[in-house]
TrEMBL record, chain A:
Stored SUPFAM superfamilies: Ribosomal protein S5 domain 2-like
Record has Chaperone as a keyword: no
Family classification: Belongs to the universal ribosomal protein uS9 family.
One BP annotation, GO: translation
Protein name: Small ribosomal subunit protein uS9m
CC per GO annotation: mitochondrial inner membrane; mitochondrial small ribosomal subunit; nucleolus
TrEMBL record, chain B:
GO MF annotation, one: GTPase activity
Family: Belongs to the mitochondrion-specific ribosomal protein mS29 family.
Annotated GO CC locations: mitochondrial small ribosomal subunit; nucleoplasm
SUPFAM superfamilies: P-loop containing nucleoside triphosphate hydrolases (SSF52540)
Full protein name: Small ribosomal subunit protein mS29
Biased composition (Basic and acidic residues): 50-63
Length: 396, 397
């Protein structure tokens, strides 16, 4: 570890730890601004400190990775945010008391219009908790003694959580044994409403605990919670387990269903549009028919001489088992033969949603019939022959 | 083909009343047998085939059914003149089965009731690509052969206007061009088809081929044909002579003449042939085309002219064109006017069902879903009941 020493420009007060292999002991110091990492060479050399004020030394990029924000700093940021929020509400002429985050977003988008494509590069104003990553406060006191009894396991939050959960499990089992001893034990199998919620994923758990976990740790934790669910437990244990479940929307997307229209003869029909690459299509599907499809006034057999395109048109009807039951008239423009077929397919599938039950709509969505294909032609880059193809590499 | 995605609704247990609809020309006891036990494979031969081998007796009740043409007849009637896909099918199934369809039945009805004293009537079969015009023509030719007509069959007129190698200036008329290869092939086929007539018909003029050879007046037509086949240089002229003789003599009533031309729009379209000086050849400058045009004029009697339009082999015509006006152009339309147009369209549901049955019988469809209702619906959708498309699709299954 013979890395060079780094000195930060601004007047910083830092504590230097002498002796020993001190690696990354910086978090323990008291830093005002972004800290630099001091890496001492091997051996027990004492470094000579040089205060270089005002001179910006060469930044060690590795050092900037772990910026620690002190608790005071975060608190100050929160105060500034709240004040700023009130100022913003005032500026926009709204009531500062009832100014929500959506209002803030709208106001910022209005005041600082940005043409950047990357949404995350645009100006944002959010609560500091969402901006600054969660960090752990100092885990030990002045005397160097850690606060938590499980500090030396390395993953104190995780093990404390496991300890807590297992404790609850033991309580429940003890209660059950007592009930059984008294004879009041009833074999009640509880059917919890587990549908519509899911366990926390590993990343979410890590975020909650501000600690790195391994896959085995995570699996162990989930197993323990599931075991807790199988036995009968009281309300507070339920609440404890529910903390680690997130709800999942059963139907992740509500498909917009076109309303039915009726033409002169009283036949119901439904219209919708579809796009694929640069082809745009509009399809009118009639409720009763014999499977005739007309594209731009031409029979689909003549318009699409290739079987593959006709198979694409067949897909929505075949999936819903409605081959030969509907008549379709469509117009299409742009694109090539394959993208026109895809655009018509999407338009027909969307139009069919109005004739079909909600369940079938969900099945169509899962089959991918109702999603517009996002693939477009990738641009050609300079220095390459195509989007991906490079020029022939010549050795000399 | 698309991998079949799992169906949303498992195949409904639908009864199959459709199967009972298709009865052949069998006796009523088989009908009773159908009604008694509607098992899926109850005498399938009754569904798509008929045993009526004589086209003269085909009627409305045979519509949609296949009838068998003996292979011997095929060799005489259609030497090298079937559409390639159909001849492959014949070879595969080792039997030639044509479906009896409405346009052909209509034509046969007209033919049975022609008055041979009137000038020859022209019938034009037209329709979209792959609907069965050529095979309807074959059906008519088979009928006429059974009735002992003389068949003048040009299998594909387009072959005469494109990619011919040896173009020679005509010996008869300096401005025209000869096509020895095509003419000799046609003469060979003509000879195979009409063997019997060649000795019966006598030529009515003397024809001098060159310094040493000539055909005397009164000699059988066979000699002219032989002359054309052996002396390839004179083949085109031989064809011209044959056509002229037949036209003249059919009015006398010794025989009845059927002129069947497939792809007649080639005669009035453009060619892709070039002379040595790279100038384009117009169709009327080809002797064969010129003579054939004279043949399809209705200034003779004692027979009929059945023509087919075809976009498939045509030159410089858009793919979607199928109407006579579009394919023949103004010149052709005027030349053929008046004619009786007969539209050949896609399969009706009954015919479609029959065709699928025929393929199933011959074990041509190997997909496990081919005999189910859903499979048939898929095929119907994908081919839109177009016979040509269906045949191509089934070739993959």
């Amino acid at each position: 570890m013979a890395a060079p020493c780094v000195f930060w420009g601004a007047a910083v007060s830092y504590r230097l730890f002498l002796g020993g292999r001190v690696s990354l002991a910086l978090r323990q110091g008291v830093w005002k601004a972004a800290a630099a990492e001091l890496q001492v060479g091997t051996g027990e050399k004492i470094l000579r400190l040089r205060h270089t004020t005002g001179v910006t030394a060469k930044k060690n990029v590795a050092a900037l990775r772990r910026e620690t924000y002190t608790v005071d700093f975060i608190k100050k940021q929160i105060e500034e945010f709240n004040i700023g929020k009130r100022h913003l509400a005032n500026m926009m002429g709204e009531d500062p008391e009832t100014f929500t985050q959506e209002d803030i977003d709208r106001a910022i988008a209005y005041l600082f219009p940005s043409g950047l494509f990357e949404k995350q590069a645009r100006p944002i104003m959010k609560h500091p908790e969402q901006i600054f990553p969660k960090q752990r406060a100092i885990q030990w006191g002045e005397d160097g003694r850690p606060f938590h009894f499980l500090f030396y396991t390395g993953k104190q939050s995780y093990y404390s959580l496991m300890h807590e959960a297992y404790g609850k499990l033991l309580d429940v089992e003890k209660r059950q044994n007592q009930l059984q001893a008294k004879g009041l034990f009833s074999e009640k199998t509880k059917t919890k409403d587990l549908i519509g919620s899911r366990w926390l994923i590993k990343e979410e758990l890590e975020e909650m605990l501000v600690e790195k976990l391994s896959d085995q740790d995570y699996a162990q934790f989930i197993r323990l919670l599931e075991r807790l669910l199988t036995v009968e437990c009281s309300a507070e244990e339920e609440e404890f387990v529910q903390r680690f479940r997130r709800s999942v929307t059963v139907q992740s997307r509500k498909q917009l269903i076109e309303p039915l229209q009726y033409d002169g003869q009283g036949m119901a029909f439904s219209t919708s549009e579809g796009k694929r690459k640069s082809a745009k299509a509009e399809a009118i599907v009639y409720e009763h028919g014999s499977g005739r499809i007309k594209v731009n006034g031409i029979d689909y057999l003549l318009y699409f001489p290739v079987t593959q395109d006709r198979e694409q048109l067949m897909f929505p009807f075949h999936f819903l088992d409605r081959l030969g039951k509907h008549d379709v008239t469509c117009t299409v423009s742009g694109g090539g033969r394959s993208s026109q077929a895809g655009a018509i397919r999407l338009a027909m599938a969307k139009a069919l949603c109005s004739f079909v039950t909600e369940e079938e709509v969900e099945w169509m969505r899962q089959a991918g019939l109702l999603t517009a294909d996002p693939r477009v032609r990738e641009r050609k880059k300079p220095g390459q022959e195509g989007a991906r193809r490079k020029f022939t590499w010549k050795k000399r | 083909m698309l991998t079949r995605t799992s169906r949303l609704v498992p195949g409904a247990r639908r009864l199959d009343p459709g199967r009972l609809l298709h009865t052949g020309s069998q006796a009523p006891q088989s009908l009773a047998a159908h009604l008694d036990n509607p098992a899926p494979d109850d005498s399938p031969r009754a569904v798509s085939r008929t045993s009526e081998k004589d086209p003269a007796r085909h009627g409305e009740q045979h519509e949609g059914l296949h009838y068998n043409i003996p292979l011997q007849d095929m060799r005489t009637l259609f030497p090298h003149s079937l559409p390639p896909r159909f001849s492959m099918q014949v070879k595969t199934f080792s039997e030639a089965c044509l479906m009896v369809r409405k346009p052909a039945l209509e034509l046969l009805h007209y033919l049975k009731n022609t008055n041979f004293a009137h000038p020859a009537v022209r019938y034009v079969l037209y329709g979209e690509k792959g609907t069965g015009k050529t095979l309807s023509l074959c059906h008519v030719i088979h009928f006429c052969a059974k009735q002992d007509w003389l068949i003048l069959h040009v299998p594909d007129a387009h072959l005469w206007v494109k990619s011919c190698r040896g173009l020679l200036p005509s010996t008869y008329n300096k401005q025209r061009l000869d096509q020895p290869a095509e003419a000799s092939i046609w003469l060979k086929n003509f000879k195979t088809t009409n063997e019997r007539f060649l000795s019966q018909i006598k030529v009515q003029e003397k024809y001098v081929w060159n310094k040493r050879e000539s055909t005397e007046k009164g000699s059988p037509l066979g000699e002219v044909v032989e002359q054309g086949i052996t002396r390839v240089k004179n083949a085109t002229d031989a064809v011209g002579v044959v056509l002229r003789e037949l036209k003249g003599q059919s009015s006398l009533g010794g025989f009845r003449l059927l002129v069947a031309v497939d792809g007649v729009n080639a005669l009035w379209g453009k060619t892709t042939l070039k002379r040595e000086d790279k100038s384009l050849v117009a169709p009327e400058e080809l002797a064969l085309v010129h003579n054939l045009r004279k043949m399809v004029k209705n200034d003779w009697h004692g027979g009929t002219i059945v023509l087919t339009l075809s976009q498939t082999g045509s030159l410089f015509k858009p793919r979607k064109a199928y109407l006579p006006q579009e394919l023949l152009g103004k010149e052709g339309f005027d030349a053929l006017d008046p004619f009786i147009p007969i539209l050949v369209s896609n399969y009706s549901p009954k015919e479609f069902e029959s065709c699928i049955q025929y393929y199933l019988e011959n074990s041509w469809l190997q997909h496990e879903k081919a005999h189910t209702e859903e499979g048939k619906k898929e095929l119907l959708f994908l081919s839109n009941a177009n016979p040509g498309q269906l045949e191509r699709l089934c070739a993959h299954l």
